[in-house]
Design a protein that fits this description.
Layout (H helix, E strand, L loop, with lengths): L1 H13 L3 H10 L13 H29 L12 H20 L12 H11 L1 H18 L2 H19 L5 H17 L1 H9 L9 H12 L1
Helix pairs in contact: 1-3, 1-4, 2-3, 3-4, 3-5, 4-5, 5-6, 6-7, 7-8
Amino acid sequence: MKEITLIIIAYFLGSIPTALIISKKFFGIDIRDYGSGNMGATNAFRIMGTKFGVIVMALDILKGMGAVGLFYLLSNDFWDNELFRTNFMIGLGLAAVIGHIFPVFAGFKGGKGVATLLGVIIAVQPVVALSCVSVFMLVLYLTRYVSLSSILSALMLPISVLWIWNEKEVIYRIFAILVALLVVLTHQKNIGRLLKGNENRVPILKHRDRRKRTSEEM
């Protein structure tokens, strides 16, 4: 019974609408009325700028990490059972991601869950998370497309789990594949805009663009 309670708590934790709270508190707007219409970090960067975009992303990551951390509220008898620990942590993380995508506190209209998923991966397998974060940051630096960065970093997850680290736990392998599929599916509109060349770039690293234009003018 306690396990079910923790799953429910994880869902409510994921449902905390960080982008909505910040947009109303500091800008007096509902972020879902602007940009892509969701509460993800990409839209937060686009509508509220780099500072608040980073804050939203960090808080959404912490939601995933906090949800997974609920595992340690169970008795110590469960801690040494590696199979149960991995499975239950993933279950808690997925509950938080579902909460982020379909938040009970925001009319079930949330974000795409990428940052919260990242928090889950960091908490479950930090070494794998490092490879995903590296891909995300590199692609973001080169393109300034958060959507493309999210998609490629998500695809890096099954690559890391299945081939680079050769994780043996079946549930974790399935989780990695499902995460990649989920991110691709929730970014279909972004993929369409990327292919058409009209996807919006986030307002970061503009100094790099200015240097590039200056060098071209010279």
